[in-house]
Amino acid sequence: MATMWVGCVAPAPDNSFGFEGSGTDTATSGGGSADASDGTTGNASMSSTSATTASTTVSTTVDPDTGVDECGPGAHCGDPVTASWFGPVIIARAEGGAALPDCPAEYPEAGPTMLEGYNDPGPAVCDCTCELNAAQTCTSYTYSYAESSCYTYQNFLQFSMDCHDFTIGGGTYFYMYQANQPFCQQMKTEDFPEVVWDATIRSCRLPDDSVACGTDGACQPTPPEGFEAGLCIYKEGDAPCPDGQYSEKLSYWAGVDDQRDCSNCTCGQAVASCSGSMHVFDAMGCGGNQVADVPNNFSCVAATGQSVGLNFTGESNCPIQTAPEPMGTIAPAGNFTFCCQPG
């Protein structure tokens, strides 16, 4: 079974896993990638060289008279992003299938959408039945005669278990025999319980033209309602958080690697016998009254009717020889580390 990652919604190749000026890294989730491009400190982008040295807190300029950060009210000057990490992003958490908020105007670009809190759904649920319709191995015939002595032949019918419209003028007889070797048909069923995650995580990043500040930093507006208070950086895999303001480690996933399956189901030797009788009804569609029960002995029975049905009494046995068993495993896949400012 092919590997399947479920739940990661990350636009690609428009740099949704990596932001300009954040270094060079590759983050994969359903084909997504992370790239970086060089820029100058005069805009939102920063060169990979400046990002590499950004392990210390940016020196911000605060007006001594007003106490306002150089980025203005409702924003602060954030640390540059350490090399090989991507961001900064704000994140929102939706639990229990709740809707995720859209990315706000202050952080308009969509980052990766991740999953949090993997709950093991368990193995595949496998079952099997072996079915044999014994009537399908039996051939049944009936004949219609104009009188009860079965002398003047009118018509005949080959039929099975279903009801059949067939006019009997005055007499009839019935017989059935095994026409072919019965066989078993295996019917395997497979059910794969779905993964229920604790939450879905949406990330949204600063625009490319965000205001630069401090030493290779960028002005970071306060996250709006519906988003976590602190900003984050992220990278693919399990990694320790770098020094600086992004110190709270969170682990998220892109989806699952589902290798669950069921082994084969096999049936044993089919056994069937042909026996039964024919019911005759005085109305079409086996309606009205049953007027005769004609035995399977090729003897003439006086009857007048409009339809017939098979009363099958044969025995059949179709054993399960090998029952299917669950195989394979399921596990979370596509681990990402998010390092966030403490809330």
Mass-distribution shape: rod-shaped
Strand order of the largest sheet: 3-10-2-13-25-14
**Portion of residues in helices?**
under 10%
Oligomeric state of the chains present here: single chain
Distance, first to last CA? 42 Å
Structure classification: mainly beta
Mean pLDDT over the full residue set = 80
Number of helices: 1
Beta-strand share of residues: 35-45%
The radius of gyration is 38 Å
Strand count: 25
Total discrete domains: 2
Give the low-pLDDT segments.
1-60
Taken in chain order, the helices and strands follow as: HEEEEEEEEEEEEEEEEEEEEEEEEE
Report on the biggest sheet: 6 strands, antiparallel
Describe the protein's architecture and organization.
The protein has one helix and 25 strands. With 343 residues, it is an all-beta fold. The protein folds into two domains: 48-123 and 193-261 and 330-340, no CATH class; 133-181 and 275-313, Gamma-B Crystallin, domain 1 (Sandwich). Strand 5 (138-145) and strand 6 form a beta hairpin. It is rod-shaped, with a radius of gyration of 38 Å.
